[in-house]
Amino acid sequence: MGLNAWFECFSGCGVRYSLEDIIYRCPTCGGLLEVRHDIAALTQRSASEWRQLFDSRLGSESGVWSRKEVVLPDLRPESIVSLGEGNSPLIRSEALARELGLSEIRIKQCGTSHTGSFKDLGMTVLVSMVNQIRSKVRAVACASTGDTSAALSAYCAASGLPSIVFLPRDKVSLAQLIQPIANGAITLSIDTDFDGCMKIVQEITNDGSIYLANSMNSLRIEGQKTISFEIAQQLGWDVPDFVVVPGGNLGNISAIANGFLLMKQMGLITRIPCLVCAQAERANPFYRAYVHGFDRMEAMTAGDTLATAIRIGNPVSFPKAVQAMKKTNGIVEEVTESELADAANRVDRMGFFNDPQTGVALAATMKLVRKGSIPKSSKVVVISTAHGLKFVDFKLRFHRGELPGTSTDLANLPIEVPSNPDAIRSVIDQRLPALSRNSG
What we know:
single chain, four-stranded parallel sheet, alpha/beta, about 15% strand, globular
């Protein structure tokens, strides 16, 4: 079975390019490219055979490369650069389902990946391809709000490729900033926002000698679409009714849509879930376009938001995300700063440890359930995009009451007590209810 994949213009020019070509936009129309697969070749194997094959690889080292046939079928095995990405848990929360009155809700914990975010899923694919053509490039570069730089620097370090990261000064968490530094990346802190960094990195990578690793390079999308394959496989090759995804540069929402659509073409699933793109109110160009029927996209200067990883006012993958919404009957919702902070920390009380971007997705889910846009009978999956430990300052500020408008009833700071058992027992008794005594 001769499986292959190639770059093709998203806008429909029809011209194909090799995945080994250093190219990010269509030379004819300037549109984004996307990776296309030979569907006829993929469907030569039956859906049951594909399910059996993928199920036989469960527990393998990489959740991406265990599905190599639908990612980069032509990549030479020795070119693969993997750090054990993917295979993230899909955790069912009975407590959150009860609170929302939903039939079922699960959180896909993509932040359990190697560098603590879903970006590893795309970066393993991109860096593996660069590893195959490494004689053509000097380094790999990205603009980042934090997580992309961590993933790029780690995978480049693992392969011995130089990396360069462009970060907006004072707009990423220290936990995110230290990762590329530790991995030896050339780390540039620039006095601008993410959109400004994105303009600069595109200029720096124009001549092709430095390879662009942002999501306008559709190789990144290929790895991230395996999130959809994991969800379906973890649900016994079924799909939820809704999948809620935080949206910034909009590559992930289009990747997840592509994954479900490809599975439908292959016969692995029989229906497509409704995708929800969740945005912070202060960085919401996609939401603004949605309420106007996607007739236009107006870039904005993103405001200060706790959800720093999606603080993007001019999303590169806008046209792909629009198509994703249309093909999945999707919804876009926005949430305020207090809503995202409260949602993240309220669900922490149910055993999770949510980053602010996941807080955006959780808050959007809560709003849509209240509105009835997500019916109570629904099965919902929320995509958690990063580990909460990357955003410790966000968590501390919440519990210290430093985030205006948030719920003080969730604050839970350490209690200072003397080294005295009686004093300690008194504090515990004040916080815990007494055991009920059964007189019988």
